[in-house]
Amino acid sequence: MSVFETKIIRSYQQEDIQQILNLAIARQDNVEEFSHEQLVEIANELGISTATLLEAERDWLLQKGEQQKRNDFNLYRQSKLKRRFGKYLIINSFLVGLNFLSNGQISWSLYILLFWSLSLGLNTWNTYQLQGEEYEEAFQKWYRKYQLTKSISTRINNWMKVLN
Questions:
Q1: Per-residue pLDDT, 9
Q2: Residue 120 CB neighbours (<10 A)
Q3: Annotated domain spans of the chain
Q4: Per the UniProt record, which residue ranges are transmembrane (predicted)?
Q5: If we measure between CA atoms, which residue out of 112, 119, 67 comes closest to residue 94?
Q6: Distance (Å, rounded) from C-alpha 124 to C-alpha 126?
Q7: Are 136 and 62 in contact, with CB atoms under 8 Å apart?
Q8: Which of 12, 25, 36, 84 could serve as 16's disulfide partner, Cβ 3.0–4.6 Å?
Q9: 0.85 cut: is pTM over it?
Q10: Running DSSP on this structure, what letter comes out for residue 4?
Q11: C-alpha distance from residue 138 to each of 133, 143, 146, 149 (Å)
Q12: pLDDT interval class at 114 (50, 70, 90)
């Protein structure tokens, strides 16, 4: 290396560092989990205080819990849609069959089939629409109902324990 050659100093923004470290950790073959001590050690090497790490870990746990609740809500909505679709198939098959057997053609049942199809299509659209104000309102309503049910169930279980 000659005297005139200079070293290239690399610098990275915080987002770049996060992406590089995520890729590096993902590429490690043998490590599937890190212990809490290892996490603290990595944070110390990066100059992150223990208090900041614990706060970030708390936030991460809250976000993970929130995401799990949203996943549960989405599964609930999908199972509800499947039940609606099953009812749609059974009832409309019956009505089309009844209409065909009584008249020899499909007439009035076609209107019911079309209107119910429109309703089912809108329900399908809403079920798979995972963003927006309507989704948030539906999620909040479901979560309040979920919390109420859980609270009542817990109180009944505690009451049953006292009685036994």
A1: 74
A2: 17
A3: 14-130
A4: 85-102
A5: 112
A6: 5
A7: no
A8: 12
A9: no
A10: T
A11: 9, 9, 12, 16
A12: very high
